Amino acid sequence: MATVLRSKIEPVMTQTHAEVTRDIVRTLETPPRSYYLAVFGAVFLLLIGIVTFTIIIKDGLGHSGYNPPVMWSVYITTFVFWVGIGHAGTLISAILFLFRSPWRTAVYRVTEAMTVFAVMTAGLFPIIHIGRQWIFYWLLPYPNQRYLWPNFKSPLLWDVFAISTYLTVSTTFLIFGLIPDVAAVRDKVTGWRRFIYGQLSMGWQGTDNQWRHYSRAYLYLAALATPLVLSVHSVVSWDFASSIIPGWHGTIFAPYFVAGAIYSGVGMVFTLLIPLRKHLRLEHMITDYHFDNLSKLTLLTGSILFYSYSMEYFVSWYSGNTFEQTTFFLRPFGAQWWSGWTMITCNALVSQLLWFRKIRTNLTSLFVISIFINIGMWFERWVIIVSSLSNDYVPWAWGVLNPTWSDWGILAGSFGWFGMWFLLFARSFPIVAIQEVKEMIPMPRLHPDAHGGH
Amino acid sequence: MIRANRWRPVRVWLAIGAAGLVLSVIGFVTDPHQAYASWLAAFAAGVSIALGALILVAVTHLTGARWFDPLRRIALDIAGTLPLFALLFLLLLPGVGRLYPWAHAPNAVNAAYLNPAFFVIRAVVYFAIWIAVGLTLRRWALARSTGAELPPSQRERALAAVALPALGLTLTFAAFDWLMSLTPAWSSTIFGVYWFAGGFLAALALVALAGALGPMPLDEDRGYALGALLLTFVVFWAYIAYCQYLIIWIGDVPAEVAWYVPRVRGSWGALALVLLFGQFLLPLLALLPHAAKVSSRMLAPVAAWLLVMHYLDCYWLVLPALHPDAVHAHWLDLGALAAVAGTAGAWATWLHAT
Q1: Which letter, b or e, does each residue of B8-38 get, where b requires 16 or more Cβ atoms within 10 Å of its Cβ?
Q2: Domain count, chain B
Q3: Which B residues 11-30 touch A at CB under 8 Å?
Q4: Which of B109, B168, B247 sits opposite A251 (nearest CB)?
Q5: Which domain holds residue B294?
Q6: Rounded distance, CA A260 to CA A167, Å?
Q7: Closest listed residue to residue A290, CA positions, set A18, A101, A454
Q8: Residues A1, B151: C-beta atoms closer than 8 Å
Q9: pTM recorded for the entire structure
């Protein structure tokens, strides 16, 4: 087995330090036209979102179809969707760092950047959703003359803390990890670029002393970021589970949401990484080996989702609670059966394809699966939120909500916002961690064969 | 002389087990309600450790954890006690009517699931899967010409991958059947994960303890890996316990809190606090320093402590069903614990010696 693994990381191992720097710094050169087209597309989507948001501010949330009993829909769905995307990044950059997994090095920068931009996107949604956006700061507990405080027993307030902590820590982690790489870029470029990268590298010279402090600090940051992988999405899940709405009130929600978050996050990593690697000509650095391991992570988390869905359905039947049973019956067989089946198929079933190595190492199939994952995970949150609210304890008041143009406009805008930041980042900073890839290169030896097994 | 020494631990464990069995059999006749409840608590703690060890073997096969190679034999021997637990489960069967209210309630909402016949059929399926996987993985590991200390072969890895989903599901439904259904009107989607978390943590602790006390003390690498995993699963257990408690406490639905009310009041509440400190806060603090993880001398007492806590955890899950008012410590608790631990200890040390 060891030999198989070694051959799979060979492409990076055979390169010299200089070649690694050259290949990665090359990605920051003047981009081709296709890149500008992509940025333009993202900005266009963002504009759609901005226009829609402006109309919502002017007219109110009536456009979003909110009507009792369904007062949460696409905005909260998309909020959870983007928060979830972020989790794979922290898992890969922090937890796998602590586990010393060799395959994280080539992909973690992409996932970290994705995390920061996904959380930045998610953070907009509670503000869009609250209706009176200009007093969003009421969400924060601050001393005020009215002696009014938010409800500290409400998970919605915990969310404010969870998300802002997460954004702070993941941004710090990203910027901190960039320092040595930005310094490497600084040493390769000239003119005003050199000045900017020079400022951002914070005086990095790569001395032994700097490295000693840096590695220590990176370890502690990773350890601090690790609990966030569990805590943030647990708190998001409690937005739902802490109420007694049928379909929300499940004790398994926290680990179930965390697994779903990582699943959706790795799905988005595939969606971003597969085209990006080709576009930036990094095929020799991000290889089958990485995709195989990412796929196994997807299989694991997808199977946990499968398990959680099974538990929900089984326990709703076992409990004998009519309302729980009705909610879970209506998900696959009610008015919005298509969304229920989309969720089950794209998450529980499609993930099981990754049992096969052929699929795990075929980039076309992985890309297609990743699109299914993105769709499935959006629908999972949509089903959980809307189908549960549609059928609560007062059957007389049951109702169905269908998304409106404003929902789609904001959703499109969120992809534009995320895509714009990600694209700008990918051409401004090394998208593969130069220093960590270099650490994978074996030390030069006079007689490499003399050491045999090493 | 050497031979005699090899079998000595087996004999010691067997003596403990025999004494416990005699006490328990007396209890089954004289005080069956208490005896079966005590038996269930000890059995649930023991079988979850054997399952945890099996899952640990399967997971390390798949992740390719090289540090685990010298410890694999220990874990396989622990998982090898699963056939014994099938026998110990047989002793529980006459008590089903006394332990589980659903055995006499044919009109209950979930009677299609909770009835004696289906209960037994499911248990047969669980044990068939567990024993088949456990014995096969063990046989294949020992059949390697080079011994169990080397990396697993391709077929072992394949079996581990296929077995894990089956193990996860059977373990969950076993937790529902044997523990959750003690209160048939109560249900919690996370309950299977809770029992897994406790059992897996205890299995790690037992592997660490056996490794630390074994002929080859843990080296720094292995100690660190085990210590870090123990730390992780101490936190994981607490996280799962908290998830269940928070959701049920904050929802405050009568049917749901009914399970917690006896378990968090009075002396049961004190035991719950013992678990909070003993299975979470204290081991968390003890395992945080690097020095604690890399030294066998530090790791062994923490591991032993965690094993005691896991038994108390299972005790806290089972016994309030019999004594909802307060903890009634009983000599049959010790009898059942001695019977399960003694026979399982004898079985595992016998497997280890052969």
Answers
A1: ebbeebbebbeebbebbeebbeeebebbbbb
A2: 1
A3: none
A4: B247
A5: 2-353
A6: 19
A7: A101
A8: yes
A9: 0.92
